[in-house]
Amino acid sequence: MSSTSVPANPVAHNVSMILPKLNDADSDIRYMTLNDLLTMLNSGNPTFIAHDYTLCCKIVDGLLHTLADTHGDVQNMAIKCLGPFVIKAPETILCPTIEKVSNIKTEGSLDISIPALGLMRIVVALPHPVPGVSRSQKVNEAYGAISKALIPRVVGRVVVPLKENKGHPAPPKGMLQEELETGNDSNSLDLLAEVARCFGPMLQEVEVQALEEMTLKVLESEKCGTVMKKKAVAALSALAPFFSESLLAHHVSTTIEKLRASHLTSQQRRLYITVYGSLARSIPQKFGPYLKTLAPFVLGPLSDMELKQQEAAEADADGERDVALEEVREAAFIAIEGFLQACPSDMRSYKKDVLEAATRFLKYEPNVADDDDEEMEEDEPAEDEFDVDEDFEEETGFEDEDDVSWKVRRCSAKALSALIGTLDPNDPALFGQIAPALIARFKEKEESVRGEVITTLAYLITKTGSIETRDTASEYQHVIPQSKKRRRGFSESLGADLHAQQALMNGYASPSTPPPTDTGTKGLAKINPDIIKGAAKLLKTSTPQTKEVVLILLKDMVSAQRGGLSEHAGLVIDPVVDALSSAPGGGANIAGNKLRTEALALLKVVAEMHSSKVLEPHLARVVPALVAAAKDRYAKASSEAFGTIECFIKALTPPRSAASKTQNGQYLAQLYQVVTERISASETDTEVRQKAVQALGLLIGRTSGAAGQKLLSQDSRFAGQQLIADRLKNELTRLPCVRAVDTIAVLAQSKNDFKPDFVGSVALELAAQLRKASRGLRGASLSALRMLAVNEASRSCLDDKGVKEIVGLLIPLLQTEDLHMMSPALVVLAAFAKDKPSLVATPQVIKGICGIVTSPISGAALDALITCVEAMGHAGAGKDLMKALLDVGVQGDTDVTGQVIGTLLVSGQSSVSVDLQAFIKELRSQSDESKRCLSLSVLGEAGLRMGTNFPLRPDSFTTYFSDPSEKVKLAAAVALGRAGAGNVKTYLPKILSVMGQGGGYHLLHSVKELLQHSTAEDDIKPYAAELWSNIIASGQAEDNKVVGAECIGRLAIIDPQAYLPQLQSFLQDNNAAIRGMVISALRYVFSDTDVSYNVNLQSTIVPMQEAMLADADLDNKRLSLSTFNSALHNKPDLILPHLSTLLPYAMEATVPRPELIREVAMGPFKHKIDDGLEIRKSAFETLYALLESPASRQRLDIVAFYDRIAAGIADEHEIKILCCLVLSKLLVIAPAESTRRLDSLSQYFRPVLAFKPKDTAVKQELEKLAEQAKAVIKVSVSFNKALGNEGGESSGRAWRDYFEWVKKDFPLYVKQAQEEEIRDR
């Protein structure tokens, strides 16, 4: 019978028809019959055999017969049938089936593992409990069968006595008992582990205890082999999550007694230590407290005393080695690694012992005479540690084949790596003991050990480098940060835009390694020469695998120090170039390709972080090697080569190479040649061509001006520009060409830097791209067009026809639906208006501007609009625009329209045909509230821009504070403040005078506007004391707190010596409103000041943060967390060194407080209100912010951090969403901890997805549930892709079951998440 004859919807009769064939003499018939039975069981209705007990008995008999078959294929197929059968069979047949399968006789040639394999298939198939989901009747029935039939068969006794069992015979000898007697592995331990994974949450304590006892007996048995004992360790690990506290305590005490026994063998000792390591990984929270007692037993084999005892024993035994003891040490280091990773806080008191043991055995080479070793270290010069001609490939093994000491050394290096992860980056042990010990082992001859040593050292260096809180682009620190004040001048506005981009692309004139500032960086600087010497020798003599990790080490060191090779560049660069040139190429040579890629990556960071003076002596060797790598047929290496070439182009061109004059020209010519060749070659890979285009744009841009043209000929530059213009029309290279044009436009210094017609043709092509569907292409094209327009050198190359076409193509962008596109478009129009106003001030552009002012825009978008309008006014083209704006009038947003009209009024002066008096008259004569508000806004903006020339006095505005309209009052207050910002000496005394008479709310707005827009800080200081007292007095009212906080924050910025101490003292005030205002004020201080202000905060910021975070008022608690977040983001240098003091406040705030949850009656319904929700949201936002920088991540206790984030999944909607985002980051940042958390995360995720809303749920609630389901599924897909598919320990049963359920019940959300992940990449 073939599977094609199996009916689509089989019934019980179809099954009964094929059962006789299971006894057929032909094994093929038996096999195919089982295959058909499997198909029927899988495709049949869930109950199609459930009511036919007789048929089920026949199926069981048939399966038992085939399980005892002499053909392995038939047995395997019978095992496969057991799973679907027990799902479809009635509950009453489960126990008999389990008993009969477990009692199959394993005689003759029959595989003795068949019973256990069959039972495992049954256990896995049965419905089992799922965390967060109520247990169904079928789950309870399945557990009943496991408890009644399976566990007694495994252990050989009835564990849970049942009334109905009285008088029944005792169960036969247990499966594990048989294994203990024979020593044969029948996979019973695997079965035990599967029972624990599937039914662990339902197992009773006596059952867990019985299974644990049997497992321990296997560990203690002399008959059981190594494989069985390893399985026993895995079984204990699976059982451990279900140990009660008393059982775990008993287990630990029992094993301790065993370890203390005098007759303990090395093998037993190794097994118990392995169990401890496994338990630490399995149940870190429960097992951690026992480490205080257990750690000494694990550290014992690694002690100096035991090492000396071993040496003495070997001497007595004529040098015979105890290999078993080496295995104990290997197991001890593996266990310690697990302790440090899973329970770092519990191992804190043993870090010194771990450090001594790891460094002791890192150099443990019993085959090498100690005397010789010491003599070599002390007497020989450093350069002779390993000879240049030494061939590591021939000496990667030991003469003694039985020597396994290399495993101990490798595990000691791994333990050191885990220890480094728990230490503070400034811990003196890192560079006082660990780093020297690792460097001393560069001479290690065993390949795997040497690689682990170097990798551990690289990790140590990376950890140290991450404490640098400066931005990675610190070379651009000389760029003046954009002021928070309103920009007053058009030329200043556009000039700052261009100069910032030029500074960003030009880089820095002479990069140098910053001086070390703390213990970690000083230690790294000290060992730098030793690392370089050792690495250089390894690069000359070692294997490709070692060379690769050495290159990674050097790259990490250069990145961490932001340089560091200035005095030893020759030692590194020459062997790196040799490695790059000599590594075998070709797509099939994986090792060679990886080596070349790492060599190029190292050269890249060397060029990026060292001055041209350091690089120039080596260019004769480096540049030809880069040229050869750029031509490599392996795309990844070629692509990496062009990234490196870009860095060398920056190093070889002004301003970095200003002192080199023209000597770098020959090298730039070589780079130009290879770049253009690779762009033009038809066989070049697309990614490589795109990288080459970017490099060409940078080369042309950096050789602009008189100095640059001496390095690269004008003909070459023009030919390169033409190549970019041609490639701009190609779909595959369009985006990199757009970015190349952007670079060229930013760096151009004169009209002569451009090939004739280049600017016109590319500008039109860029403008045409603004209609394309790709947002990335449109954004890049608009950015490049903006730079072409802002830079006068390129703008002067555009003719009227080109400008007219570009303006026409920009008009569709003048809409507030997309501010990111609108703002640059307005800047382009502003630049064109400077020279060609008539082409810009068209009816279409004016209509677009009038449409913009109807929306309430702010920030960069408003600045761009005002810049454009100001440009048109200065150019005398504002008449029609003014008329159109006046027609819009009160239909637009009052504040935006007022600022735009005020700007145009001042910049256009007489050309706009409207003067200031018209608006003054309008204000005084109009009764319409909206028109008066608009006039006030116009006059305020005019006052800001006219300064002391503004004819109105403060009384012209304060008069309207008595107006019956609240809107007019507020508009007058804002206008007063803006006008005051232009003339502080006249306006501020009047504001203070009126403030003393009342009207605090409106005058606070005036003060806020004055402080926000004024640049005359010296004029403000004489009035600061009076301002301060008035703001403190007025700001305590509920409506005034926010504005008052901003005002006193800005005063503290203006005069920090006077007001920061007062802010600190106010944090102790008894009035919660004052404390809250001060906390908010500090947020403005942190966000609106640059690095130069830090000196004022250095001594007070941490005490102030502690005082804020300890505030008991709920509103202040939330504000303090928000301010702490602001400090982390804006003042990391001051906050991160004290994170261990401040972070506990935020961690504590994430815990829900039951006393803050109250019940409110709303009609017949009762509604719960959580007053602590906003505090928790702020706390979780702070935790999210901590993952943004490597410096803060290094200072986190990831285990405790993960605990709070996982708990947040069970919190309210907003916190669930935020925690899903944090988990996505933790997946990348802490993959090891994420792997350990997979099963527990599934327990948090499942209830979120399984929640069913009530029938009366409103639309908003349903939308929230859908949003959080999408967030949970998205992070689940990411975790499963990264960790869940690896099998083994990385994805446990709970996670696999959870994700299968997600795929089955939420296929649409899973598909969306997978598609989003692809798009994000």
TrEMBL record:
The residues covered by the TATA-binding protein interacting (TIP20) domain are: 1134-1303
**Record flagged with keyword Cell membrane:** no
Question: What Pfam families does the record point to?
Answer: TIP120, TPR_CAND1
| One of the GO BP terms on file | SCF complex assembly
This protein's superkingdom?
Answer: Eukaryota
> Is Isomerase among the key words of this record?
no
Q: Where is this region: Disordered?
A: 368-387
Q: Which Gene3D superfamilies does its entry note? A: Leucine-rich Repeat Variant
Coiled-coil boundaries: none
The entry's keywords: Repeat, Ubl conjugation pathway
Give the record's family classification: Belongs to the CAND family.
- What name has this protein been given in UniProt? TATA-binding protein interacting (TIP20) domain-containing protein
Source organism of this protein record: Extremus antarcticus
